[in-house]
Structure prediction request, 310 residues.
Amino acid sequence: MDVDRTAAAIADMSIRGAGRIARAGAAALSHFADNYKGNDLGGFRRDLEGAKATLLGSRPTAVSLWNGVQASTKGVGGAKDLGEAIALVKANAAAFIDASEKAVGVISEIGAKRICDGDVVMTHCNSAAALGPIIEAHRQGKAVRVYATETRPWRQGLITVRQLAEAGVDTTLIVDTAVRSVMKRVDKVFVGADTVTSHGALVNKIGTSQLALAAHEARKQFYCCAETYKFSPMTLFGDMVTIEERDHGEVVGRDEIPSSVKIFNPVFDSTPPRYIDAIITELGMISPGSVYGIMVGQLGEEAFKVGGRK
Ligand code: RUB
Prediction:
């Protein structure tokens, strides 16, 4: 799909979920490179910047999209000619998509080991990375039962319960307001991530922090499943994560309530690291405090030299 259509599909959420939007962004840049009609390298680089900006303007919170776009365009500045630049974007994008898909497989294997026979797991929204371990544990023959939240207002929980049911997992749908009450029946919480900050905070679907608080209060384990391309390099340098606010029409019809009532529809929230037992990544199970070291390793020392930040 081309860049404009991909950006529109991400914005209207026909493509959603941090991993999927990152792969869609990479695929759109590959399509852009493959179909480039110009004939000079300078023009390609300029148009590529425009394509990146279009994609990044679609949704603000998931850093996975930014990391996918950066990974797909790495090295273009050093390309000798147009052909090399085009080939580079296509190869980078394909490598990113492949690594992203494999990462979910590794997270599934690692996460499944944290699920014991007979465990009851709660999950929120719809996350491929969080469902992977549950489905893998079930595939391994462990008896696992799941409580999945509805996830207002988009009701991504319905996608989750369909996927779990299709995989044969014993699944119960609950409304979001039932989280604290149901937590006493639960052993572990598994959720995904849109962004993980350098100090290990988790930015994920609105309501995630309520699950974390309820799990903490009930002394239940809380796991975040996140590929490392959901780690935000910008947060290392002090930037805040932008929490997306979406249209009030997603919450309630305007004519259903008095016109004087305002509607606030933030779609992500932040869970402090102290409520997270571990982050399950493709590099292994880590503490929230280890995120900083992994990001520094991935960025390289150059980024931290005074004036070195691009
Ligand atoms: C989706 C959401 C998911 C993460 C991780 O929000 O919060 O938990 O994106 O998903 P939305 P995955 O529906 O608003 O995009 O593990 O699939 O990347």
